[in-house]
Amino acid sequence: MSDGRSRQHPTERSTSAHKPASCEPSPSKPSSSEPPPGEPVSREPVSREPVSREPLSRERIIEAALTIIDDEGVDALSMRRLAATLGVQAMSLYNHVDGKADVLDGITEFITTGMQLPRRTDGGWEDGIRSVAYGFRQSSLRHPRACELVLTRQLSSRHALPTINCSLAVLLDHGFDEAAAVHALRLLIAFQVGSLIREFHSPSFKGEDESAVRERTARLESSGFPAVAKLAPMLAVIDHDAEFTFGVELLIDALRTYAPSDATDRPGMTSSSPTDI
Length: 277
Description:
This protein is an all-alpha fold. It is built from 12 helices and no strands.
C-alpha cells in the first residue's frame, strides 16, 4: 500500500563485523619466511578500521520508529524492535527518549511540523478555515498509519497548540465572538478526526473497477432496506476527497449563521503562529 510519504527515513540495520583473513600460515605448508626454530616470533598488531556509524540521536530514533509504523502499523513498534532496527542495545535508546510514549509523541511532533498553515489569509474567514482543514489533512495523509497518533493523542500538547491557535485566530480576527470561535474549533476538530479515522479504516471505492462496483451495488440492492436499495449505486462508490470537501463546505455554511454581519469587510488573519508548526 502506498502511504504517500514525501520524505525518506533511512533505517540502519546491524551488519556482521568483517572477519579479517587469518594471519597464521597453514600447518602443513610452513612459510619460508618463518624464523629458525627457537628464535622469538615478532608479530605486528593487526590494524582494524573502526566501524562507521551515525551517532544515535532522538531524531534518528523518531525517524526509525516512523518507518516501522509506516510499513507495519503502530502495533509493530516496540523499544526492542526499534533498537534492533537501529543496530543498538535497547537501553541505549533511553539516553535519548523516555520510552515508547515519548517516541509516539515525537512522531506526532514530526507529522504536525509538516503542516503548512497560513500566516494570514487575504480572503475571508472561509478561506482561513479551508486552509487549516486541508493543511491538516494533507500532512496527515503523508503517513496514513502514523497520523492516527496525531488524531488521538492529547490535542492540548504544545505541538498541537499552533494549529488550535491558527484556527481560533481565523475566526476571532474576522469578528466571531469567543464562545462561537471555541465551539467552531471543537466542531472542526471532531470533523477532522472522524473523517480521517474513517478514511484510514475503510476502503476507497472510486469506481475504477466497474465489476466491483456492480457487485457492491447488487449486494446493497438486495439488502432488504428500501432506502439503502434505492441509493445503492451511490453507496457503492466512496471518494474520500469528495466527502471531505462536502464536509468542509457544510461546516462553513453552518458557521455563517454565527458570523458577524461585517465579517467579510474585516482584514485578514494577523495573530496566528508561524507558517510551519
